[in-house]
């Protein structure tokens, strides 16, 4: 059975070019970049080349790039650094649809005397700039808003929000884990202070991330140790992964056009095809302000896990915002924040594409998906032929 | 990814008795769209009062669909009195185990059965008069109490796994903890006198009883799925076993060991036994 991988917001295939680039640094080139001898020195040079490649993808300076272990570490570092550098400020602004790496870090701050504002989103998953402007005050230490939402792909106007934050003296951080490599980013022309990215979302391996810290931003390290990363992140560098991430960023820059033209076309074909072939299917979130690769569709009156398992039997890998797939009992916090009705939230499926996807794959999904939904609806007590039965649910 | 037994996968892929019985004698509807799963059970009785036909419609995940299918197969041919003893644990056993977080799917089956029987008899379910404890999922005090007693639950997390109560906003956690304390307190007081009788085994008696239980009770059940179990050693209360046949390669063998073999041995031999798998 052929694997059709359309779950690229979860993780991505490590590009063969990336594996090749990393390979010598697992074996013969094992030196420590901090060493004085030539053997470590050549590794140091390669690490710095990777730093330049990452910086170049997002319009940053190499010195503004700090390597970390993952996106979560980057998010944690950014927020804790902002709070420690501004101890007199007691207000944090974020959104209701952040990744748990931000959401679960910020929520307990309330107990430590911080005021936490979680900005709401509307039915289309969008933030209101008026609201953003209203809540950020002189007391705000940090504003952290994701660039792109992992579930819906919705893009937030982070550059605009950064300007507002800057005007009130707050640090602005964005979790850009889902955005980097998919849309053009130029930090040189923005007021964003800190940005998180993660290697495994752009065809580098799992276990490597980056926190960008704008030059001049007060910074307090999260992991304290040696002088690595100019004392901003302790711990011997994860050399092969850093080099892999550098290569992946170079590839991403080259694929940016493919992503925004061909992959976007595939996503649109898949989405429009499913909407057309399957009644009572709805796209979650605004269809314009969105990543080119992501589509979240709800198929009403069926449950997401069942859909995923049936897709999985056909070799198709996707994900769902349903309760059952997460092990929690409630559907995704993102869909709930958007007010997606329960009839749809439990039956949401996320397709997230990459440059490796092909038109044949999209055609195959379009072929197998309608009978799967039909089959599950035939079992569902809420579905009666072609229309939903009135249900007892509130 | 959830680890489902082959039986769950099979019943999810090819569910039996899907649909609605025409002119049903009993109809049981539980769950709702908002809860993420719902089950409608319908059955018809023959002239002897046995269930001749049972069908289900389910909105939910794989384990909800498999539990529903299992339920219909278990009740066909039984009288309503006979179905009264069927609990969610029987559904779990029929399926060869369910992940902890999916236990509520088996409870939903049991509830649909009770609701359908009550509907046939024109009775009200006891839970209908009971207070709602968990507002998020509409779970009543009676339902929580039954789940605790039927499944010997001891923690809040288990109550959530089995009934969903407490899985939403969390404002009912304190009340559920209180119920647990009260019920467990009572259970201890009731069970206390029985304990010595079970525990007074000599080592030889214990070993013999373990052997007998494995042979008579456990082996035949595993054999139904093409598996078998071999006793390797008994060290104190540790029962070392080796799984054979289909069990040896079954991804759900952990669940079989803990949920079935260990609980059966504890029930029939002594409470402190721990079953461990050893490679042989």
What does the model show?
The complex is a heterodimer of chains A (394) and B (280). Chain A has 2 domains: 4-9 and 255-376, Aspartate Aminotransferase, domain 1 (Alpha-Beta Complex), CATH 3.90.1150; 16-252, Aspartate Aminotransferase, domain 2 (3-Layer(aba) Sandwich), CATH 3.40.640.10. Helix content of chain A is 39%, strand content 15%. Chain A has helices at 16-22, 38-58, 71-85, 100-106, 129-135, 158-167, 228-231, 239-277, 304-313, 323-326, 333-337, 342-345, 359-379, and strands at residues 4-5, 65-68, 91-95, 115-119, 140-144, 171-175, 194-198, 209-213, 281-283, 294-299, 316-317, 319-320, 348-352, 383-384, 387-388. In chain A, the strands form 4 sheets. Chain A has a 7-stranded mixed beta sheet, with helices on both faces. A 4-stranded antiparallel beta sheet of chain A has the order 9-10-13-12. A two-stranded parallel ribbon of chain A has the order 1-11. In chain A, a hairpin with a 2-residue loop joins strand 14 (383-384) and strand 15. Chain B has 280 residues and is an alpha+beta fold. Chain B has 3 domains: 6-123, Alpha-Beta Complex (Sufe protein. Chain: A); 127-194, BFD-like [2Fe-2S]-binding domain (Arc Repressor Mutant, subunit A), CATH 1.10.10; 201-277, 2-Layer Sandwich (GMP Synthetase, Chain A, domain 3). In chain B, the strands form 3 sheets. A 3-stranded antiparallel beta sheet of chain B has the order 1-2-3. In chain B, a hairpin with a 5-residue loop joins strand 2 (37-45) and strand 3. In chain B, helix 1 (6-13) crosses helix 2 (62-75), helix 4 crosses helix 5 (103-121) and helix 10 (203-224) packs across helix 12 (253-268). The radius of gyration of chain B is 20 Å and the shape is globular. In chain B, 41% of the residues are buried. The chains are: A alpha/beta (394), B alpha+beta (280). At the A-B interface, helix 9 and helix 10 of A face strand 2, strand 3 and helix 2 of B.
């Amino acid at each position: 059975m052929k694997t059709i991988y359309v779950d690229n917001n979860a993780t991505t295939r490590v590009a063969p070019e990336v594996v090749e680039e990393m390979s010598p640094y697992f074996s013969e080139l094992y030196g420590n970049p901090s060493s004085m001898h030539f053997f470590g020195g050549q590794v140091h040079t390669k690490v710095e080349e990777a730093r330049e490649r990452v910086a170049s993808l997002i319009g940053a300076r190499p010195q503004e790039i700090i390597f970390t272990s993952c996106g979560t570490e980057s998010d944690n570092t950014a927020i804790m650094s902002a709070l420690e550098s501004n101890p007199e400020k007691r207000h944090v602004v974020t959104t209701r649809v952040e990744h748990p790496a931000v959401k679960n870090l910020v929520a307990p701050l309330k107990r430590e005397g911080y005021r936490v504002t979680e900005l709401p989103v509307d039915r289309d998953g969008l933030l209101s700039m008026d609201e953003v402007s209203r809540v950020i005050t002189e007391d705000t230490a940090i504003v952290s808003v994701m660039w792109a939402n992992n579930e819906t792909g919705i893009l937030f106007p982070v550059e605009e929000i950064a300007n507002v934050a800057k005007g009130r003296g707050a640090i602005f951080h964005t979790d850009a884990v889902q955005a980097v490599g998919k849309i053009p980013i130029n930090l040189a022309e923005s007021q964003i202070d800190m940005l998180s990215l993660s290697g495994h979302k752009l065809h580098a391996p799992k276990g490597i991330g980056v926190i960008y810290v704008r030059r001049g931003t007060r910074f307090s390290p999260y992991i304290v140790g040696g002088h690595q990363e100019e004392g901003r992140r302790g711990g011997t560098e994860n050399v092969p992964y850093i080099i892999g991430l550098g290569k992946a960023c170079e590839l991403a820059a080259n694929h940016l056009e493919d992503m925004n033209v061909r992959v976007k076309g595939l996503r649109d074909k898949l989405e429009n095809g499913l909407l057309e072939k399957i009644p009572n299917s709805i796209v979650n979130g605004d269809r314009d302000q969105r990543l080119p690769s992501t589509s979240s569709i709800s198929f009403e009156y069926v449950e997401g896990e069942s859909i995923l398992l049936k897709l999985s039997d056909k070799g198709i890998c996707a994900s769902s915002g349903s309760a059952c797939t997460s092990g929690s009992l409630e559907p995704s916090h993102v869909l709930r924040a958007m007010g997606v009705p329960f009839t749809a939230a439990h039956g949401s499926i996320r397709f997230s594409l990459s440059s490796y996807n092909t038109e044949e794959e999209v055609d195959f999904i379009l072929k197998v998906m309608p009978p799967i939904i039909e089959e599950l609806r035939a079992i569902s007590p809420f579905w009666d032929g072609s229309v939903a039965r009135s249900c007892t649910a509130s | 990814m959830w680890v489902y037994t082959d039986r769950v996968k099979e019943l999810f892929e090819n569910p039996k008795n899907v649909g609605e019985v025409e002119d049903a004698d009993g109809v049981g509807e539980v769950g709702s769209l908002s809860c993420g799963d719902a089950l409608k059970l319908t059955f018809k009785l023959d002239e002897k009062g046995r269930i001749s036909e049972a069908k289900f419609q389910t909105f939910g995940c794989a384990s909800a669909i498999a539990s529903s299918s299992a339920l219909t197969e278990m009740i066909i041919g039984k009288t309503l009195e006979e179905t009264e003893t069927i609990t969610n644990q029987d559904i779990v056993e029929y399926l060869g185990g369910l992940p902890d977080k999916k236990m509520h799917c088996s409870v939903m089956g049991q509830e649909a059965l009770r609701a359908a029987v009550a509907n046939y008899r024109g009775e009200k379910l006891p839970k209908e008069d009971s207070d709602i404890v968990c507002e998020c999922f509409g779970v009543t005090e009676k339902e929580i109490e039954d789940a605790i007693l039927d499944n010997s639950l001891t923690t809040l997390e288990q109550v959530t796994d089995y009934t969903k109560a407490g899985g939403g906003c969390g404002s009912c956690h304190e009340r559920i903890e209180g119920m647990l304390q009260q019920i467990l307190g009572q259970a201890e007081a009731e069970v206390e006198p029985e304990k010595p009788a079970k525990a007074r085994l000599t080592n030889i008696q214990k070993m013999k009883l373990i052997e007998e239980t494995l042979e008579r009770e456990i082996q035949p059940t595993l054999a139904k799925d093409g598996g078998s179990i071999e006793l390797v050693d008994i060290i104190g209360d540790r029962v070392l076993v080796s799984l054979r046949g289909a069990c040896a390669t079954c991804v759900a063998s952990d669940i079989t060991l803990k949920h079935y073999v260990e609980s059966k041995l504890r029930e029939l031999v002594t409470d402190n036994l721990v079953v461990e798998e050893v490679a042989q």
